[in-house]
């Protein structure tokens, strides 16, 4: 029970926060004077997904079936963008750790990509690559690149001097130091960056679809507003948020599985003097 408690507390806290947000959303809409035609509540979204008759098409199963290809397209765009951004971030981090000259090259590019608003740079990316998955990958990769680059670079620099000296003492070269010491030490930082990047790629993919595509959640956000299908509009917003939260949860789970036993939590580390 004592082992389960630290794992259950964050889950229960997250669920409690989610319930509070949903109740607050429901009460805010119900007690205000906003239009019930334009503004939907969590119960309306529940009805859209599970109750027949209130929305078009009449069968909830048909409405759910229509959402599946939209979700699939957005997940494809986000996944390709995440893979592209992670790959670029890892290559940039390794390059920056190997050479100060390359650090001076990569860092300004990363800062420029981070400081320019995505809504401003997206049309430029579209003008260069046109419509398609390449543009979606580049837009999603832009938001992924910077947190991965900075976090992994910091993690690689966090390798202890004693460990670095030990590798050198046994004749290990630059590749050995990178593979045996720096990359393993960067794993917690990699997952910290992924926790930021993975949900952000969902938003970036949705933005690409909203601006330049006729497929996916983002494109249907636009068309549902154009056709005044506000039940679908609010449901798409909820689905997009749920996908972003699921992306964060998937990274957190992967982190727990990958780092289990490799980096014990601080509470289990035996401190000097015998305290635990």
From TrEMBL:
It is found in: Cell membrane. The keyword Transmembrane helix applies. Pfam families: BPD_transp_1. Its main location: membrane. The chain crosses the membrane at residues 7-27, 70-94, 106-126, 132-150, 189-211, 231-254. Keywords: Cell membrane, Membrane, Transmembrane, Transmembrane helix, Transport. It is a multi-pass membrane protein. Residues 71-251 form the ABC transmembrane type-1 domain. InterPro entries: MetI-like, MetI-like_sf. The keyword RNA-binding does not apply. GO terms for biological process: transmembrane transport. It comes from the Bacteria. One of its GO terms (cellular component) is plasma membrane. Belongs to the binding-protein-dependent transport system permease family. This is ABC transporter permease. The lineage of its organism: Bacteria, Bacillati, Actinomycetota, Actinomycetes, Micrococcales.
